[in-house]
Amino acid sequence: MCSYDEVSSGIILLLYTIAAYCSEKVVAEDVPADMEAFVAEKRRELIETVSEVDDKLAEAFLGDETISAADLQV
Q: How far apart are CA 72 and CA 53, in angstroms?
């Protein structure tokens, strides 16, 4: 169980591109519309960094292919 004091407004999970909010339980929702561009940019930066050490991911990234959360997991 989460406490409001621990997370006052939620977190963004870049891997899954969702927002998680904590109240009585953790609730996952779509990223707020006003944060979509920022989240997309940060997810792209994350993927770019990870692709520097993974050839298969680098090929997908450079080929502008869609990269899923599963692709980023070990």
A: 12
